[in-house]
Amino acid sequence: MPMQMDQLVALCKRRGFLFQSSEIYGGLNGFWDYGPMGVELKRNVREAWWRDMVTAHNEQAVRPGAPSTYEMTGLDCTIIMHPQVWKVSGHYDLFHDFLVDCREEKRRYRHDQVFGRWVEGRGQRFFVATETLGDEGQEEMQHRALKFLGLRAKDAGELKWDGPVVCLTTIKDHSQVLAPDAKKLGTLTEPREFNLMFETHTGAVADESSKTFLRPETAQGIFVNFKNVLDSTRVKIPFGIAQIGKSFRNEITPRNFTFRSREFEQMEIEFFCRPETSADWYAYWRDRRFAWYLDLGLARDRLRLRDHDPDELSHYSTGTADIEYAFPFMAPGEFGELEGVAHRGDFDLRSHMEGKLDPKSRPLAVENDEHGQPRYRGSGRDLSYFDAETKERFIPHVIEPSAGADRATLAFLCEAYREDEVPDENGKLTKRTLMAFHPRLAPYKAAVFPLVRKDGMPEVAQEIYAALKPRLNVFYDEKSAVGRRYRRQDEIGTPYCITVDGQTLEDGTVTVRDRDTLRQWRIHKNECAAEIERLVSGNE
Ligand code: ATP
Q1: Pocket around ligand 1 at a 6 A CB cut-off
Q2: How far is the centre of ligand 1, averaged over its atoms, from the C-alpha of 255 (Å)?
């Protein structure tokens, strides 16, 4: 049976992966806290990304599929930046969604996330709207259409559905629309623009001149520091700059656990290359990033790489592909974006190069002319690249793999969740829940147990724990029956358990138990650290 999302949500709370932010005050919609297990899991996701993309990258070697060797380096930029950055990037003017309000239910919807179907019954034709897709959505629409007409379930045959499910954006007149929670027709307002950037003020005076924004993406910090990185390191094109950090979007309808949050973390790379090689680098990064998710355990049949249709592309992009995952909360056949890999051309560097900042303008204000257009475009700084070998100056093209740390963590949580039946100490089959994380991502790499709390077993187990602790995140537990301790570790995804038993006291060996296969084998207690490190790194 496929995993139900509420089972995962319950496990996340019970075992300390995720809590609703400010829960004791009723929570804050779109904000999530990572608990003791969640913080380790998400750190491991970030660290796997940083290590695989940046620190463990060998700049001398050509990687499979890469057009040439390349360098990688990192940055950590501020969340609040000069507001002109967002003017130039286009976020100030264009980063909006359309929303519609329901006057009856006082609810707000993202225009493009409401769907529905036309239906006729009892001489009336109207559009039943829902936010749910698939069979569940159809059931909900039927239920509400019947209720609206004062009919009962057995009268469903009286309803005549007209055409397929379509998005609300295709309905020009809302007067015959039954909004998702409404009882009357025509309660939705006309769609209007809503900028997703969170505003704040910098300094003591809160007025237009001190207005600043929480960054909606980490990428711009990389572009505006492009020259600093060139001048302070010896990187040569092609090279990439990576950054991990918080981003903020005032999403109209945050939902699906952490999938769409208002505060989230991104893992982004801006990869700079010669224009004529950019198509090859784009292909390389698409494939490389796709393979990264597979390597860390996402199932091939739940992952897909989807090229954007030409009409989905931003005007400056010659190619964008989304890496998508079939999250369990999506309708069958639907996928949710994990990462976007975009060919951005030279749009960003060129935009930040244009124009000139007026030294007399107020330092923080975003400048518009009388037509509402930006008065000064970019910084006026030269952000071109000089190739010392070919003696050419050019503006590099950019490939941007932009991933979400929280969405990746959520995908790994969904993928890991499973239930099976295993024999207990008396051989009776009992149900267990396990989180089959890739060992690199698991919060604890191993747990160490004495079989019983006597005969010197705790002392030996503590010795092993002390030897492992400086090298690996491990857990010590001597409370309750050993079977229950195993189950606890299975539920938080600990891949290996080391148990000290009677035989340990005789010959110094301990058992190692594998979470997924339940296989047990004996090794000498002094080999625990090396064995677990070997298993976790996958060098079996
Ligand atoms: P969506 O279409 O789902 O809103 P997007 O296309 O706007 O996403 P990008 O701007 O490409 O997303 O951001 C890059 C990545 O950042 C996404 O692939 C996703 O992993 C993550 N991300 C974006 N918005 C959110 C959010 N509200 N909550 C969690 N992660 C997000």
Answers
A1: 217, 249, 251, 260-261, 264, 266, 337-340, 402-404, 406-407
A2: 13
